[in-house]
Each structure stands twice: as C-alpha cells, then as structure tokens.
Amino acid sequence: MQTVLQINFPFKGPFGPEMSQAMKALAESIATEPGLLWKIWTENAQTQEAGGLYLFSDAESAQSYLKMHKTRLTAAGITDIKAKLFNVNAPLSKICKGPIQ
C-alpha cells in the first residue's frame, strides 16, 4: 500500500532560491531512493523549519528511508526531527486531485 511520510525539523536555512541551489545534489540523490514516487519539499523561513512530504510505493520503503534520513539529519547536527507515516486512501485522494499513482 502506498505510504506518505511526513518529516519536519528545525532548520536555520538557507530558504527559497538559495535552498534550491544548496540542496540540488541532495534532491537528486533522494529522487533515486527505492520506492520513492515523489517528494514535496517544505520550508518556512519565519518559523525556521523545513522538511517534506514523501509518497512511497510501500511502507517498508518509507520506513527504510526514514531510518536512513534521520541518521543523515542527525549527522548534520539536526535534532528534534518529527516524522509520521500514513497509509494512503487512494480513492478519496484521487477525487481530491491527489497525485496518487
């Protein structure tokens, strides 16, 4: 079953175009993760937060990615990482124009 992973964490920047440039190589790496269907990057400069919404083909891929990503974030000095996994209700999501495959 498709699984959504939601991750949020404190982040001091960069944001906006600078973030896009600084994180391009990371985005290219994330795009190759097993089971990843898509990721929406999230950022809020006012609250100093960043993260993302991910759609994985299955829960196992999402959990594996989460474990690896938490390790990567922690190694970069990021703490207070919040993550949640959700099953996708595809019929309702499609009605509401969700990018479900």
TrEMBL record:
It comes from the Bacteria. Keywords: Monooxygenase, Oxidoreductase. The lineage of its organism: Bacteria, Pseudomonadati, Pseudomonadota, Gammaproteobacteria, Pseudomonadales. This is Monooxygenase. InterPro entries: Dimeric_a/b-barrel (IPR011008), YdhR (IPR014910). It comes from Denitrificimonas halotolerans. It holds the Pfam family ydhR. GO terms for molecular function: monooxygenase activity. NCBIfam families: PRK11118.1. PANTHER family: MONOOXYGENASE YDHR-RELATED (PTHR39169:SF1), PTHR39169.
